[in-house]
Amino acid sequence: MNTRKGWAFHAVMAPLTLLWVAPMAFVVLISIRSFDDIASRGTAALPDSFTFDGFRTAFGEGSMGKALWTSVQVTVPAVIISLLLSSMAAFALSRYPIPGRRAILLVMLAGNLLPPQILLIPVSRITESLGIYDTLVGLIAIHVGFGLGFYTFVLHGFMRSIPSEVTEAARIDGAGAFSVYARIVMPLCRPSLAALGALATTWIFNDLIWAITVLRTQAKFPVTAALLNLQGGYVSNWNVVAAASIMAAIPTAIVFFAFQRHFVSGLLMGSTK
Amino acid sequence: MTVAAASRRRRHISPVVWLFLLVPAAVEVGLVFWPAVNSFYLSLTKWNGLGAPENVGLRNYRDMFSDGVFREALGNNVIWAVGFGGLSVAGGLALAVALNKPRRGVGVYRSAIYLPMVFSLAVTGLFWRVQYQPDGTVNTLLGAVGLESLERQWLADPKTALYAVLVAAVWRQVGYVMVLYLAGLKGTDPSLDDASAVDGAGPWQRFWYVTWPQLRGVNTVVFAVTVIDSLRTFDIVWAMTQGGPYHSSELLSTYMFQQGFTFLNLGYASAIAVVIFALALLFIITYLVRTLKEEVS
Amino acid sequence: MVHSELSRRGLLAGIGGLGAAALLGGCATSSSDSGSGSSATLTLQSSLSDPSPKAALTKVVEGYTKTKVTLNTIAIESFRAQLPTYLNSATPPDVLTWYAGSVARDYASKGFLLDVSDLWTGSGACAGFSPALKELSTGADGKQIFVPTNYYWWGMFYRKSAFQEWGVRPATTWDEFIALCKAIKAKGVAPLTMGTGSTPWVASGWFDYLDLRVNGAQFHRDLLAGKHSFDGPEVKAVMEHYRELLPYIDPKGRSYSWQDAVTPLASKKAGMYLIGAFITQSVPKDVVDDIDFFRVPIIDPSVPVAEEAPTDGYFASARSKNVAGAKELLSYLASAPAQEEFIKLSASSNLPTSPRVSTAGFSPLVQKGIKLLNESAAITQFFNRDSSDELQSTADTALTKFLDSPADVDSILAGWQSAAQKVLNS
């Protein structure tokens, strides 16, 4: 190992990383200040106070605890169902000569190309006519529907690279399609499933726009919508918003760190092996 | 797969496999395409959310092309696609290459760079708004190195607002692209790289001729993601400038939101959304059809 | 090979899609029929997400024991985006917070608001309210559709101790005001602070007031209704006065939100702020008692004095499943005790609409505000509440451009006029 290059590497990366981490430090600094301190000296000033009021208020009036639990209740089923359905579709499209499979794949991906904002009102009407408006089930359904195209696309690429000899051997042994799926292909996909799972968790957990569209009752809001409600139309208690943001970031950060191992070996598409 | 094997496979596809495809497809059609078709229909109407929409044919589209703000937003989107797309991909790739080899502290660096993705856009927007303020960090740093002449009100100056927001958006996106490329690099064959090093190839040559071709699969995903994300960027621009000052940082997505939800011109907003969709489709489909054709051959 | 596969499926998909489009287009945009049947609970959908008003409303609602009320507080921007969906739903929220003025009237004309005229007659909760408030709450068909519960005033806010330190006093005429600005500037302090960065509507505060002082309230209302031109001589006169203010406005305000711009005022780095009384929510606690205001200076003594006093309140959904309950909740919210409790807890210097609320216990600042409004000849709301959010956005564009390049005032006004016409004619 060239020690001179090693020193140069850290000399570049360390300040760069500090730059990246600076906003987080800023948010932490704001969260421990008092409202009066921010009001009198501005958001940019260094803290002149130290208090956990922001966190207390976020937990209490902001009901961050309940909102975090709601987010978990929405994210976990949505991720599991999304990955299940998209792996099924990817399996069918990648390993069976279904007519028009390339077109179908592209059409499914195209579903992700529309800006979500414009679908808000049709989605709210449709969930209402289906009877799932203002329910967590409705929110989960929307998340599943909107992720399917992209997840199918990525899993399709990974499944294509599984050699056909592996599945042929199973087929000759008499295994049906479902067995091939469950016992051979899915275990081989574990790394990319883990990676997609981590990404999907980040996206669904941090989603704001669907939560606001599908849900109307404040008690059912997940963390992102609850966070938005901490900002007023006139005045915002930035210390409370900052504290709540930190609490909201912790679960996704944990998931990311936990899945990181798989992350850096999972999202391949048609690798050269 | 040999030709013989392929023709043998064609005879029968079990119903289970059809089910595997049709259940997810049905879900997507019901929850995504059904509302999307509605949006296309809405783009031909004038509607404010209450009562029945009024059919106006292609008037929204005609109005769009004579709308100065729409044209400005379209131009900004081009700048955004090149700037945001280009910089986040270049930065993500560079960081992935730099942080790929196991080294002391590399895990910390990787995690730090991904961290922005985990934070809510409300506080991210606030942070950058504060940094760009007249007495904020950016101007203070410029003053400290003697560049006072470059100090300005970054978010209030129509000439710099868009680029100031661009920096913030790239800062956030780079971690995500880096992670995608890290995944791709892990799938490359290190023995090829070592072999060419032994043959005397320099680091840049090794990257361009050995590593880069192996990244083709990841590049497709990154391209798709970048195009989709750059056309859909909304939250960070809205949090920082709301498209201002006087529309100089307006993007199609922020304009669409303002038209649809602040002014309740839902027909016109839907027309803008259809344009966004068409642009994304154009890029993605041509690239993907070409790529998938290559893979088949 | 690929092409033939695509075309067969594509054709079928296309035909199916077109047929579906017509069918489904109707589906998602049609409003559902309200079925019969009533409910025993009430939903109050609130846009008051500011910390103190939210806490205040929660407390007030807790005091309502007749029916169970579910209070949902939604951030204002999301609330505004979802409001048509709320009103159009088959099971809408029963009571909603909103503003008096053209938006409420617009919804009423489309039949989405409950007729609450019986609250305004006889012994109804709003029967004693002023005629101006009644007029404000009346829809185009003469029926009342709104229940106002509080309003606030706008004025030139400043810190008493700061003025004492600088040896200056509030102004009553325009010339005195300019002299006051000069004096403060000589002390090295920005005379006027104004946060027009992420909250450009603040710039309309000065526009509205200058228009009221130069041309009067009737002209202002007519201007916003499209009866006068934005590039006519009257508005040009307004902009001439606005131009006089520019050297005294803190240039950093262009990067601030209205709330950020309060900090210089609180720390004595700026002199005055033309803003609404809600400013008291955002100053540090030890500064609140030091805050005072004076009336925006008179320019033309022959013009009847008008003030801006945006009015907030509630309306009910026409499709509510519990009409009787909704009306009772509205009566409760409009009642004197409820108004008093809300105002006390919300810390935002609001004024009650009910004459039965005793104002003796209110802070001196609020009592001064009441006096200000009582002495005015006319009251307007605010630019967006008197017209629409879309017209407000044309004002934001024009006025912020003017702040940056005042020399281009003629082309800016011409652009404003054409943008305004597009909005008013659509």
How would you briefly describe this protein structure?
The complex is a heterotrimer of chains A (273), B (297) and C (426). With 273 residues, chain A is mainly alpha-helical.
Can you offer a commentary on this structure?
- The complex is a heterotrimer of chains A (273), B (297) and C (426).
- By secondary structure, chain A is mainly alpha-helical.
- Chain A contains 13 helices and no strands.
- Chain A is globular and about 75 Å long.
- In chain A, 73% of the residues lie in helices and 0% in strands.
- In chain A, 55% of the residues are buried.
- Chain A has a single domain (25-266), classed as MetI-like (MetI-like fold).
- Chain B is mainly α.
- Chain B has a single domain (43-296), classed as MetI-like fold.
- Helix content of chain B is 72%, strand content 1%.
- A two-stranded antiparallel ribbon of chain B has the order 1-2.
- Chain B is flat, with a radius of gyration of 24 Å.
- The termini of chain B are close together.
- Chain C is of the alpha/beta class.
- Chain C folds into two domains: 41-149 and 311-356, Periplasmic binding protein-like II (D-Maltodextrin-Binding Protein, domain 2), CATH 3.40.190.10; 154-308 and 382-425, D-Maltodextrin-Binding Protein, domain 2 (3-Layer(aba) Sandwich).
- Chain C is built from 18 helices and twelve strands.
- A six-stranded mixed β-sheet of chain C has the order 2-1-3-10-4-11. In chain C, strands 6-7-5-8 form a four-stranded mixed β-sheet. Chain C has a two-stranded parallel sheet with strand order 9-12.
- In chain C, helix 2 (51-62) packs antiparallel against helix 14 (336-346) and helix 8 crosses helix 9 (217-224).
- The interface between A and C is large, with 43 and 53 residues.
